[in-house]
Design goal:
Number of helices: 13
Distance between the termini: 89 Å
Helix content: 25-40%
Radius of gyration: 35 Å
Length: about 575
């Protein structure tokens, strides 16, 4: 399968797989399939496409600095193995592999001493290591025989080394707070396994990270992280060949969810195809395991040796699989913490205009909320400070801001306590919703109760504050509105629009200081639950016909909430 090997000065090399026939976008934008954080690269820099003839082609998408293939600036080019593409500071080498064969071994169990150690210190990683799946002709097990004392001593040293490494991994991953750092750290650690000379860690794309079943091949990876022990030479003294990632190994591990032990890539009897380029790269022994557990996978971990055949033992594979599982669980922990942080940010933003209980419900039921607007019945409450302009003329700006902030804090607390939604502040007033985003049978009553408590809270604010007394008029109306997220893609607000909103705002303009006016529609929803008196019909601005208006006797309501319900009285 084709791939890009990505390099940049002072950074580790990475690998990006070109899986399937899907187009690949390359650019600085986070939405790009291959995101390259480089100021010399445009947000939408290039695209890589598979032609009908099966070839891969790179196309410039109108970038500022263009693309260079093999030293020549081009608008588009068909890619061939070992072509080098230069994008800003990044170099992408195009590789394409063919197939050959390999052999793998089964795995058995962890050494007894390691099992005993793990049982003494229970951890969430217990049970996470998995048996390996044989994918080709397994090697015959050699007959057991009594080991010489030197062999036994060597075996104990190897077990001690593996146990020490396992415990170090457990400690090293516990405090890490970044997924990429977890993958890089565990890759550094597994290269300490005896004989491991090269390795890579491949994290799944966010869209499939943490999934359970990849048996149908529906997965893709982020660019791989590569590591090589520095200064390693082949037996003939030549530098190590480049590391090639076998698509066959990736597919077997991902689709089975089990670790693999590659005994000898050069053996002719292997029946499972693998890349010919990997054989030519000199890989003799390798191990690969999923980053995760049976239920959740986050990627792959791989190490190999190009110098020794049948190097890795079955116990080394088991330890390697446990380390990969530990790394997967660490990644799961970090992702969970990141998701909690994101949810807390969302919750904090929502609590600016929703009560904490309603904000929590919005987060919990986010899948049921619809973008855009929908029609529903709601009760609108508008409140406005009377004669505020006159006060502003005689008050310093700093003191005025302090007064307004104190006023809004008091009013917001009352709205939230009555399960209302703060839509917006309007200079020296505010707009509130009852019945959105979630409706209740008593939304109108909640709005009237909130209005009464707001008037009482304002009286207390005047009594304890160092300012001229504030007086407020409130208007309330119930009816159908269009409610939802409105605005543009760059800025949206959760709000309501419609005639109901206009009527509530106009009622507020009609309200005297300390007065609460409600429409007949709101009164019909709360009849006999609050004391009120009917007023003369009012002709509101922008409406042809007068509407019925009632005044809520809020002082009586607060004094007698538990008494017998009152009825509306018509003034003579």
């Amino acid at each position: 399968m084709p791939r890009f090997v990505i390099s940049r000065p002072n950074e580790e090399s990475r690998v990006f797989e070109l899986s399937g026939d899907r187009p690949i976008s390359i650019g600085r934008a986070k939405s790009s399939s291959l995101m390259l954080d480089d100021s010399n690269i445009s947000r939408l820099h290039a695209a890589v496409l598979k032609t009908p003839g099966g070839e891969w082609q790179i196309v410039d998408r109108g970038s500022v600095n263009g693309i260079v293939v093999n030293g020549v600036r081009v608008r588009e080019a068909t890619l061939h193995p070992n072509d080098e593409i230069v994008l800003g500071e990044h170099r992408l080498r195009f590789e394409e592999s063919e197939v050959a064969g390999f052999v793998v071994h089964d795995t058995t169990r962890l050494p007894d001493r390691l099992v005993q150690e793990m049982r003494r210190s229970p951890s969430p990683y217990s049970g996470s290591f998995l048996p390996v799946i044989p994918v080709a002709n397994p090697a015959e097990a050699k007959p057991s025989r009594r080991k010489e004392s030197t062999d036994r001593e060597r075996e104990l040293q190897r077990e001690n080394s593996l146990l020490t490494l396992l415990l170090r991994v457990n400690r090293a991953l516990g405090e890490l707070q970044n997924v990429n750092v977890v993958a890089e750290r565990v890759l550094d650690l597994v290269l300490e396994i005896e004989g491991a000379e090269r390795g890579y860690a491949m994290l799944l794309d966010e869209s499939c990270m943490g999934a359970r079943d990849f048996s149908r091949g529906d997965y893709s990876f982020q660019p791989a992280m590569l590591r090589t022990r520095s200064g390693l030479k082949r037996p003939d003294g030549q530098p190590q060949p480049k590391l090639i990632i076998s698509q066959t190994i990736i597919r077997k591990v991902m689709e089975s969810g089990l670790p693999l032990l590659l005994a000898d890539a050069q053996a002719p009897e292997g029946s499972i195809p693998m890349s010919r380029s990997m054989v030519s790269s000199g890989v003799l022994s390798a191990m690969c395991a999923p980053l995760g557990t049976r239920d959740r996978s986050f990627g792959l971990l791989y190490v190999d040796s190009p110098t020794r055949r049948s190097l890795f033992t079955q116990e080394a594979l088991d330890i390697f699989a446990v380390i990969a599982a530990q790394a997967g669980l660490a990644i799961d922990r970090v992702r969970t913490q990141e998701e909690i942080a994101r949810q807390n940010l969302k919750l904090g933003a929502l609590e600016r205009f929703l009560s904490p209980d309603v904000a929590g419900k919005v987060i919990a039921d986010a899948a049921d909320l619809r973008l855009g607007g929908r029609k529903q019945t709601a009760t609108l409450l508008f409140a406005d400070i009377r004669s505020f302009t006159t006060m502003a003329e005689n008050t310093t700006p700093e003191h005025l801001v302090e007064i307004l902030n104190g006023f809004f804090q008091q009013m917001t607390d009352v709205i939230f306590q009555n399960e209302g939604t703060l839509d917006k502040f309007l200079g020296d007033g505010m707009m509130c919703l009852f019945g959105a985003p979630f409706s209740h049978w008593d939304d109108a009553l909640g709005a009237v109760n909130a209005a009464a408590e707001m008037q009482a809270a304002l009286a207390e604010f005047n009594r304890t504050g160092n300012h001229a007394p504030l007086r407020m008029g409130i208007g309330i109306h119930t009816g159908e509105v269009i409610i939802g997220y409105m605005g543009s893609a760059r800025r949206m607000d959760y709000t309501a629009i419609g005639d109901t909103v206009n009527v509530a705002a106009r009622l507020t303009s009609e309200a005297e200081p300390d007065q609460i006016l409600v429409s007949a529609a709101t009164w019909n929803a709360i009849r006999e639950k609050v004391p009120a008196r009917a007023l003369d019909a009012r002709k509101l601005k922008g409406r042809g016909e007068p509407i019925e208006v009632l005044e809520i006797l809020w002082k009586e309501l607060l004094a007698a909430r538990s008494h017998a319900p009152a009825t509306a009285l018509k003034e003579g």
